Amino acid sequence: MSDAFYGYLDRDAEMAAVIAKHNRQRLGQTFADWFKEMFTGMDNWGPQYAERRWKIGIVHVRVGIGPQHVVPAMATVVQEVSRRLVKEGKPEQLRTSLSKVCMIDLSFIEQAYLEVAYNAVQQETGMSEALFKRLIANGANSLI
Amino acid sequence: MAFLQAILQNYVANTPEVQGAAVVTPDGLPLASALPAGMDEERTSAMSAAMLSLGERIGKELGRGALERVFVQGEKGYGVLASCSPDAVLLTIASHEVKQGLLFLEIKRVAASIAEAMK
């Protein structure tokens, strides 16, 4: 699974450049831990699980992996898992459940990305959250 | 906020070369405005609050002390932002013919009366 995941990322020049800065073996182990946790749920998919996912999201932001890369990478995981489940004759429900867990993880990473970006701008400009949201809403209106 | 509206209208009507004014919250919500027709009150308010906030941060970063005003000078005149109180920001727009010293004095006076009225 890890090979399929990083094999996919290696085909993207931008992602390959990010990955090249890190120890491949360590990345593979981190991926394996993350993948295993999806099945064990750590604390039954409770606060500890959420906290860990949140931190993974922040790490992605810090190393410059944006949502545009996370979504297709996660799709690769779902696709690879599906392929393996079909090959091993596992029930359809298992595939559906795993897809759902992957989507939850994806939403954590996306949310972390947005919040880190928001917080960074707010910290640098001194803007309140309400003002920042108002500017976004006004800007969005003017784009339509 | 009728009292704020009255202060602003009086300010714009009686100060030479002042073309408009608005009072907004630090979150960018308009409280009262006497802006020229065609100016988007919502956007102007949010941008004014953002500009003042950024000005305060820059002033602090550059070690310039407490911010007195943010002054925007354009080809057609000026935009000045000043804090009235922790809850209100005053935006003034004036033509390029305004006397800056007098404008700043007037802004201080109006900001103080807005702060007093909002107590």
Q: Could you walk me through the main structural features you see in this protein, from its secondary elements to its overall organization?
A:
The complex is a heterodimer of chains A (144) and B (119). With 144 residues, chain A is mostly helical. Chain A has 7 helices and no strands. In chain A, helix 4 (47-62) crosses helix 6. Chain A starts with a helix and ends with a helix. By secondary structure, chain B is an alpha+beta fold. Chain B has one domain (2-117): Beta-Lactamase. In chain B, 44% of the residues lie in helices and 29% in strands. Chain B has helices at 2-14, 41-61, 100-117, and strands at 18-24, 30-34, 70-74, 77-85, 88-95. Chain B has a 5-stranded antiparallel beta sheet, with helices on both faces. In chain B, a hairpin with a 2-residue loop joins strand 3 (70-74) and strand 4. The model of chain B has no long low-confidence stretch (mean pLDDT 95). At the A-B interface, helix 7 of A face helix 2 of B.
What characteristics describe this protein?
heterodimer, A: 144 residues, mainly alpha, Globin-like, 0% strand, globular, B: 119 residues, alpha+beta, Beta-Lactamase, 5-stranded antiparallel sheet
Summarize the structure.
Chain A is mostly helical. Chain A contains 7 helices and no strands. In chain A, helix 1 crosses helix 5 (67-87).
Layout of strands and helices, then pairs:
The complex is a heterodimer of chains A (144) and B (119).
Chain A: H1 2-10, H2 13-20, H3 24-40, H4 47-62, H5 67-87, H6 92-125, H7 129-143
Chain B: H1 2-14, E1 18-24, E2 30-34, H2 41-61, E3 70-74, E4 77-85, E5 88-95, H3 100-117
Antiparallel strand pairs in B: 1-2, 1-5, 3-4, 4-5
Helix pairs in contact in B: 1-3
User: What's the alpha carbon Rg of chain A, rounded to whole Å?
Assistant: 18 Å
Low-confidence stretches of chain A: none
Into which percent range does the helicity of residues of chain B fall? 40-55%
Residues in β-strands, percent of chain B: 25-35%
Strand-pairing-aware structural class of chain A? mainly alpha
Order of helices and strands of chain A: HHHHHHH
Give me the strand/helix succession of chain B.
HEEHEEEH
The CATH architecture assignment of chain B turns out to be 2-Layer Sandwich
* CATH architecture call of chain A: Orthogonal Bundle
> What would the average pLDDT of chain B be, to the nearest integer?
95
CATH class of chain A: Mainly Alpha
